[in-house]
Every structure is written in C-alpha cells, then in structure tokens.
Amino acid sequence: MKIGYAHVSTCDQNLELQLDALTQAGCETIFQEKVSRATKARPELDKLLASLR
Q1: How far apart are CA 5 and CA 19, in angstroms?
Q2: What Pfam family does this protein match (any one) (predicted)?
Q3: How high is the mean pLDDT of the chain?
Q4: Does the pLDDT at position 37 exceed 80?
Q5: Distance between CA 50 and CA 44 in Å, rounded?
Q6: 27-45 burial, b if ≥16 CB within 10 A, otherwise e?
Q7: Catalytic annotation present for 36
Q8: Domain map (residue ranges) of the chain
C-alpha cells in the first residue's frame, strides 16, 4: 500500500499538482495540509507517521 503526503506552506498555494502526482504514483491514501512554515505543528504528517507504526 502506498501512502502519500502533500503539503503547501501558504493558503495561496495549490495542492493539485502534488495530489495528481501522488495519485498517478499509485497512492491509495494521501494526507494533505496547508500549514505555514512558521508553524511547527503538522497534524496530518503526525497522522501519517502514526499510521505507519
């Protein structure tokens, strides 16, 4: 099972290119978030890592 993670750091940026690439790569589950670089918390990345354990 392939799992993907798409991230952009501003609300003005778009996840679509990343999501398309991850889908084409065969990812069945894709975690995505829009979080500022100033913010250290990345809840979707934490969920992804927890799912791998």
Answers
A1: 8
A2: Resolvase
A3: 91
A4: no
A5: 10
A6: beebbebebeeeeeeeebe
A7: no
A8: 2-52
pTM attached to this predicted model: 0.82
Which numeric CATH code is attached to 2-52? 3.40.50.1390
Among the listed residues 2, 7, 8, 9, the single catalytic one is 9
| Sequence letter at residue 14 | N
CB 34 within 8 Å of CB 8:
yes
Contact 26, 2 (CB under 8 A): yes
Q: How far apart are CA 49 and CA 32, in angstroms?
A: 13
**10-25: per-residue pLDDT in tens?**
877 889 999 999 999 9
Extract the tokens encoding 38. Answer: 């100033």
